[in-house]
């Protein structure tokens, strides 16, 4: 063949990108999932919905009666009165309503209602719950507890809803609960007011005596401590402390500066040049002028030394003048240093005196603060006692007035009446829920099975989970087709041949450049997945496309190509002189079968003779397809991959876990050959929709549109 046939179009990679499986699912994909598991989904949906409808329709009919009680806020009173006993919790309307609701649901109030019932009323409530013999009726307490649904609705409305098998009993319980609750609130209000009045009177008397004792204690303390001018004394001491603190800080700063000056003078050690640089020295009397004279003499000396020697009269005169000036400077420095030392001692004494005075002032301030604290404690206690006495006395007056007013602000708005028809079972609701449960179960069961299944299911799983390209599918074939290994050779079935043409096209599109001697290794995870069947037909497809193709059976552990094609090869085997020479099955297809199995497969693969044979065949043929042992069980495929360019992996749907296939492909990726893609075998027509790289429709629907027999090109 010419090289042009091996080189693909430069834009093939772009076309190939458009053939990848889209991860976006349409409604047809979801419909396919339901169709795949519709029988099990139908069984589960019928079971769930039927059981629900049966249980609900078997319930005993119940009647409902409702009484309405309205809570009214009393905002038109002459004064704003708060209940004393509930003052700690605010007595807000919401709190009152929550308390009322708690009382209504309590066992004590239920017992109160039961005690108010007559014998005839008790029989009316219990008779419908007795068995057929009229015995074994549940207690009336249990009937009422399970029948009432008392709730607060609309913010200030109590709804007494009762369910009962007898409509008269339901109305009786609703009305009796509302009436008894009104009576209960009236009685409790009276008891509460009486106990509140007794408590407040006793507290008022105790607090009055406590206020009197506190006033006497404050007066006695003021007399003992002479606290008439306490605040003025505190202000004087505070001002004195401020003055002392300021003077002390100034003295410390002055002392620190003087100490630094003395330290620098001592560090100079009589060096006049260093002393002349100190700011404090330059500000001492005549010292600046004397230092200036010294500097002038030194400058003159340097100038004279350039013209005269040491013994020159002018040099001697200059040295004498310089000595005299330095003597005067030393004398002045000693006097000033003595003054600095004396001044330093005086400052230290002053700082000590100021610190002592400040400490004494602070002590006096602390003593006055202690007195003020004790006095303020007594004043606060007196103020607290007075405030408590005023509040309790005010509450007492309010409680007296509240006891004279009505605190019950509930009234019956609607009385309960016997219902004309039961409210449960609600047939319409039951049928609606049953239909919903059926549709929900029928829709969810297939998706639950689909997403809980961890096996390989779709082409999307291949490309997204296994991260390898999807090359195509091979469907299951009719039983009338016997010699499946000759599907492509004899063009036995148009649809089958078209599937192999699709896979052949995908292989060419995935390879940007197909060189002569290109070698494909075909393998699978486990035996009996159609690996040898696929290898034979794929080789035949390449042969029909004018590639000189060699099919090698390298499944040394269980060779099957020779067995499958025994009828085709028997004559060729008899005529073959060299056992290592391929058999010519057709013009484009040669086959090299392996007749005897062996367990020493890896030794044979790694032998130099095997490598040399493969290299020789790669020089002689355009395409080489090698059928190997299953890669999930043996390492043969990975070793042979070192002599090839690509792997083609064959698998089946819903047979292997994704993690298992991913591990096998990971081992194959360690070989020199690249994994070209995955082919799915034995795909049923119902599952074929999720596969197919080109999204082909069913070829069988349109086969009449195309010619079924090929004519030889002239």
Automatic annotation (TrEMBL):
Enumerate the spans annotated as CobQ/CobB/MinD/ParA nucleotide binding domain.
529-689
Name the residues that span the membrane: 37-54, 430-452
Compositional bias (Polar residues) spans? 1-10
SUPFAM superfamilies listed in its UniProt record: P-loop containing nucleoside triphosphate hydrolases (SSF52540)
From the Swiss-Prot or TrEMBL record, what is one GO molecular function term?
ATP binding
PANTHER family named among the record's database cross-references: FERRIC ENTEROBACTIN TRANSPORT PROTEIN FEPE, TYROSINE-PROTEIN KINASE
Any coiled-coil regions, as ranges: 197-224, 337-374
Can you name this protein? Polysaccharide biosynthesis tyrosine autokinase
Gene3D superfamilies from the UniProt entry: P-loop containing nucleotide triphosphate hydrolases
Tell me the Pfam families matching this sequence.
CbiA
Q: State the organism named in the record.
A: Oceanipulchritudo coccoides
Q: Which domain of life is it from?
A: Bacteria
Tell me which CDD domains the record gives. Answer: BY-kinase (cd05387)
GO cellular component terms, semicolon-separated? plasma membrane
């Amino acid at each position: 063949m010419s090289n042009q046939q091996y080189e693909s179009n430069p834009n093939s990679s772009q076309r190939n990108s458009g053939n990848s499986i889209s991860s976006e699912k349409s409604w047809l994909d979801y419909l396919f999932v339901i169709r795949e598991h519709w029988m099990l989904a139908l069984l589960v949906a019928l079971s769930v919905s039927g059981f629900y409808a049966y249980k609900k329709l078997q319930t005993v009919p119940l009647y409902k009666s409702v009484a309405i009680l309205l809570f009214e806020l009393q905002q038109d009173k002459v004064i704003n009165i708060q209940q004393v006993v509930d003052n700690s919790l605010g007595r807000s309307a919401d709190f009152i309503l929550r308390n009322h609701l708690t009382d209504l649901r309590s066992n004590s109030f239920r017992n109160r209602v039961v005690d108010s019932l007559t014998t005839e009323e008790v029989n009316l409530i219990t008779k419908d719950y007795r068995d057929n013999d009229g015995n074994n009726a549940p207690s009336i307490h249990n009937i009422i507890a399970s029948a009432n649904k008392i709730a607060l609705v609309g913010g200030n409305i109590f709804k007494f809803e009762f369910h009962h098998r007898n409509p008269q009993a339901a109305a009786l319980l609703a009305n009796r609960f509302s009436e008894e609750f009104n009576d209960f609130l009236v009685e409790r209000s009276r008891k509460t007011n009486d106990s509140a009045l007794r408590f407040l009177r006793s507290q008022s008397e105790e607090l009055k005596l406590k206020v009197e004792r506190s006033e006497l204690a404050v007066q006695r303390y003021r007399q003992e401590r002479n606290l008439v001018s306490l605040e003025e004394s505190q202000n004087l001491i505070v001002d004195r402390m401020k003055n002392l603190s300021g003077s002390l800080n100034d003295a410390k700063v002055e002392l620190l500066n003087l100490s630094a000056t003395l330290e620098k003078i001592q560090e100079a050690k009589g060096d006049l040049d260093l002393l002349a640089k100190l700011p404090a020295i330059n500000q001492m009397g005549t010292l600046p002028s004397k230092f200036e004279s010294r500097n002038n003499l030194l400058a003159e000396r340097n100038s004279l030394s350039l013209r005269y020697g040491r013994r020159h009269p002018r040099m001697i005169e200059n040295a004498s003048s310089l000595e005299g000036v330095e003597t005067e400077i030393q004398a002045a420095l000693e006097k000033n240093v003595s003054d600095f030392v004396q001044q330093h001692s005086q400052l230290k004494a002053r700082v000590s005196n100021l610190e002592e005075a400040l400490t004494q002032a602070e002590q006096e301030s602390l003593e006055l603060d202690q007195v003020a604290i004790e006095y303020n404690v007594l004043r606060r206690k007196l103020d607290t006692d007075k405030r408590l006495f005023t509040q309790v006395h005010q509450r007492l007056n309010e409680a007296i007035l509240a006891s004279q007013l009505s605190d019950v602000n509930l009234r019956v708005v609607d009385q309960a009446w016997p219902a004309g028809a039961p409210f449960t079972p609600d047939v319409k609701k039951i049928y609606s829920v049953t239909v919903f449960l059926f549709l929900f179960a029928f829709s969810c069961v297939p998706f639950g099975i689909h997403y809980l299944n961890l096996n390989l299911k779709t082409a999307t799983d291949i490309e997204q989970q296994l991260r390898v390209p999807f090359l195509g599918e091979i469907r299951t074939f009719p039983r009338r087709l016997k010699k499946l290994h000759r599907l492509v050779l004899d063009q036995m079935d148009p649809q089958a041949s078209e599937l192999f043409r699709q896979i052949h096209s995908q292989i060419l599109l995935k390879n940007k450049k197909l060189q002569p001697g290109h070698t494909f290794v075909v393998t699978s995870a486990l035996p009996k997945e159609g690996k040898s069947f696929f290898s034979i037909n794929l080789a035949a497809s390449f042969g029909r496309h004018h590639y000189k193709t060699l099919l090698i059976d390298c499944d040394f552990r269980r060779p099957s190509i020779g067995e499958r094609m025994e009828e085709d090869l028997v004559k060729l085997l008899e005529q073959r002189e060299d056992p290592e020479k391929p058999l010519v099955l057709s013009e484009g297809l040669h086959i090299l079968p392996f007749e005897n199995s062996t367990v020493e497969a890896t030794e044979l693969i790694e032998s130099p003779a095997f490598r040399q044979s493969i290299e020789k065949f790669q020089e002689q043929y355009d395409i080489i397809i090698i059928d190997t042992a299953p890669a999930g069980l043996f390492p043969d495929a990975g070793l042979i991959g070192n002599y090839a360019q690509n792997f083609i992996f064959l698998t089946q749907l819903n047979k292997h876990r994704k993690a298992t296939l991913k591990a096998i492909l990971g081992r194959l990726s360690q070989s020199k050959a690249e994994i070209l893609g995955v082919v799915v075998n034995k795909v049923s027509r119902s599952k074929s929709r999720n596969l197919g790289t080109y999204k082909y429709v069913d070829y069988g629907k349109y086969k009449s549109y195309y010619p079924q027999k090929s004519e030889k090109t002239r």
